[in-house]
């Protein structure tokens, strides 16, 4: 396998996911970032904080330590109590994505077949990466959907707008 081709493709695809989330929140107020569609549902703030927390945990020392770090407080990712505004959220978000992209770019061909652990479960590195990017794309889809729900007719399409 040519790791560079895979990494370049994955980084382009995931950068596009990052942009979708960012273009969504650019259309929303800080108050809307905290809105939850229903009891027990996640707000955009919570989804972004969860993605960031998961990314930093999974991709810090990716090849050498379990992806579920002992220092991660996953339950706290699902609380809005620490919301300090969009600027702080985007700082956490950007650091997490940088960790993800840096880790992918640091991998060599031989690393993709190595065994890594997530919650003490063994995976090949490539499978662990693929598992996570699907997880992140699911949550980005939720972010976009919530944004569309909130903006209704004011929603600005993130792709090709429908002909009306």
Automatic annotation (TrEMBL):
Q: Mind telling me which Pfam families this protein's record contains? A: DUF1572 (PF07609)
Gene3D superfamilies from the entry? Answer: dinb family like domain (1.20.120.450)
Source domain of life: Bacteria
Protein name stated in the entry:
DUF1572 domain-containing protein
What is the organism of origin for this protein?
Answer: Chitinophaga caeni
């Amino acid at each position: 396998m040519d790791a560079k081709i895979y990494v370049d493709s994955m980084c382009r695809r995931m950068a596009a996911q990052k942009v979708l989330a960012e273009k969504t929140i650019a259309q929303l107020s800080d108050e809307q970032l905290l809105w939850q569609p229903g009891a027990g549902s996640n707000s955009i703030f919570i989804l972004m904080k969860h993605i960031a927390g998961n990314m930093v945990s999974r991709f810090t020392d990716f090849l050498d330590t379990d992806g579920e770090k002992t220092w991660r407080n996953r339950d706290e990712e699902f609380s809005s109590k620490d919301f300090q505004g969009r600027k702080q959220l985007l700082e956490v978000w950007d650091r997490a994505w940088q960790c993800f992209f840096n880790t992918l770019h640091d991998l060599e061909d031989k690393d993709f077949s190595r065994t890594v652990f997530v919650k003490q479960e063994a995976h090949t590195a490539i499978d662990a990466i693929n598992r996570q990017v699907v997880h992140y794309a699911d949550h980005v889809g939720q972010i976009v959907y919530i944004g569309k729900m909130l903006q209704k007719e004011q929603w600005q399409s993130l792709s090709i707008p429908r002909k009306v």
